[in-house]
Amino acid sequence: MIWDKPGIPKGFLGRVILLDSLREEKSFISLPAYLEKNAERLRSKYLEFISELGARKFEGQSISQHLDIGDGLSYWWMTTLAEKSPFKSPNIYKSLLMLALEEILVEYRPSEVFVDSNQSEYQEIVQGICGRLSIPCSCEFQGFVTSRMRLFQLRSFLLGLTSVLKRFTMRYKARFSKKNEWSRGNKNVSIFSYFTHLSSSHCADGVHYSFMWTALPELLTNNGWSINWFQHYLPNDGKVSLAEGLKLLDSFSTVEGDSQTHRFLDSHLSISVFLTTLKSWFKLRKKLRRLQNIPALFQIKNSGVNLWPLLKREWVSSTSGQTAAINCLWVALFDATLKKISHQTLGLYIHENQAWEHALLASWRKYKHGKIVSVQHATAPFWHLYYFNHESIYLNKNSDGMPVPDLWSVNGPAVYEAFVSSGYPADKLIMLEALRYLDADGQQRKHQAKTEGAKVPSATLKVLALGDLMPDFMDSLILALKNCIDVLPHNYKFSFKPHPADNTNACERLGLDIDHTIEPLSQILKDFDVVVGSHATSATLDSYLAGVKPIVFLNGKTFNLSPLRGYAGAEFVSSSRQLVDLLTSHDYLGASLNDDEEFFLSDPGLVRWERLLLASDIA
């Protein structure tokens, strides 16, 4: 039986494969646990499938060629399929589960398979697997409902149209902001960043300081570079309105004089950009309407798995719907921006393989600006698939190939090894200091934790729970903490730090009565012995670097997205019982972190960055 409902099936005598549970005992097989145990092979298989999907020939051309509408970029690379973000595309996880399921069915060769699931996508895929293996399969199969898909196509089209219109109407005022003259000369750098993670104290003084870039702007200006900032305004950040943001940008440019200029990318919105967006979008839709039998392209090679039921909506949205419309806007906006600006010696941008990055790279090359370097601002966890591609993608030098920077910069040995082992060309990788992690105090705290160990349960043990923006993950963690507190002794003191952008008050909603704190994590970590967080937050890494023991809570319903996956010193649990066992273990609490793994290059002198800026082929 294949089961994805709450609890476990009763009275079934055969083997049960659990789709959304980490429980493994007797006749139960956890599919999430199997996926994690065989992660390298299954991840590689999925990355290869995505690579082959873009290259598959259809009516004489590959998919990536069909999605090239003549503006120097194949829109294939901007689809959510090619991006592979588990945060934007949760069905990636389900797709990997289906690959894992096929391996299990091949190994056990059951006499019959019964699917008890409310998701028709699973049912359809399992029937395909069983058909190839000649295994009888029964389920309440609903099949593909054409009318439902057509309704989604219509909805995606309308959302695409309204998204573009909303972007223009809500942000067109940015076009009329004060525009300082762009920095000219032979030592200017364009930095493409997000208008977020800003220091509030610096903003109050009219000074720009980003925690994503920290000391780099000062290094650049001290070495004679002029900086042109292109900022992505993020309305969901909720802290600064567009009008307030425009005032801040004006203040930044005034205070910093000729050395730095600041603009929102949306300041280049225009009627021409709007019309170009619509023209490209409708041209893309027209090309895709001619293609037939698309579902067959989603068949995994040498497999019974066809992922069309899980990925069809991503295909529709990315090639003709809402995602496609926004991608066309990105291309038109970057084209207008980089056409007007004087020649730029160097470009830097945040590397996350998002659609706007490919639009930037295509326009940067089109207008023959200088070198452009991607900047790794965080870790690259194993299951953050947007950082990884099948190695064949890097070998494609054709016009429809993936746009790439001149160099990918990485922030330490951990990311470097992850990238090289996944197929990045080593000669295009460069290690530079981690701009977000130049905190020497944290390293000192870690050293002290290694030598001194942690408190044992006989003393008051302080546990900090970290909030998350993903509601499902947060609820699972809070309920587990609630169960723990009910059984742990009184010498355990729990506190909760919500995510800075979370206003849902999940603890109150779920009845967890513990202390709250909103102080910066870097300032309070020294007061705690253990940190507990969900697998989706990177804040557990901050505690690890500061020498505070991290425990990562898994919910069994998606990937282990933690940056600490695979590292000694981090513990992973999936139930309140496991969490209690760990928090009451003398062996665990008394041991030091005992890990010399170097995540980041953290020299505040930025020697490597300075060496890059002095390179003869850059400046």
The number of domains is 2
Helix content: 40-55%
The profile of the biggest β sheet is: 7 strands, parallel
Distance between the termini: 63 Å
Task: From the alpha carbons, calculate the radius of gyration and give it in angstroms.
Answer: 26 Å
Q: Strand share of the residues?
A: 5-15%
What do the pLDDT scores average to? 87
Spatial sequence of strands, sheet with the most strands:
10-9-8-11-12-13-14
Identify the overall geometry: globular
Structural class: alpha/beta
Your description of this structure?
By secondary structure, this protein is an alpha/beta fold. The chain has 2 domains: 39-89 and 147-437 and 605-619, no CATH class; 440-590, Glycogen Phosphorylase B (Rossmann fold, 3-Layer(aba) Sandwich). Helices cover 42% and strands 13% of the residues. The strands form 4 sheets. Strands 10-9-8-11-12-13-14 form a 7-stranded parallel beta sheet, sandwiched between helices. Strands 17-16-15-18-19-20 form a 6-stranded parallel beta sheet, sandwiched between helices. Helix 18 (471-487) packs across helix 22. The protein starts with a strand and ends in a 5-residue tail after the last helix. Residues 440-445 and 447-451 have low confidence and may be disordered.
Q: Could you give the topology of this structure?
A:
Layout: E1 2-3, E2 16-18, E3 28-30, H1 31-37, H2 39-55, E4 57-58, E5 61-62, H3 63-66, H4 80-83, H5 91-108, E6 113-116, H6 120-133, E7 137-139, H7 146-171, E8 188-194, H8 200-204, H9 216-222, E9 226-232, H10 242-256, E10 260-264, H11 271-289, H12 308-319, H13 322-340, E11 346-350, H14 355-366, E12 371-375, H15 391-395, E13 407-410, H16 413-422, E14 429-431, H17 440-452, E15 461-466, H18 471-487, E16 492-497, H19 506-510, E17 515-516, H20 521-524, E18 530-534, H21 539-545, E19 549-553, E20 571-573, H22 576-583, H23 586-590, H24 607-614
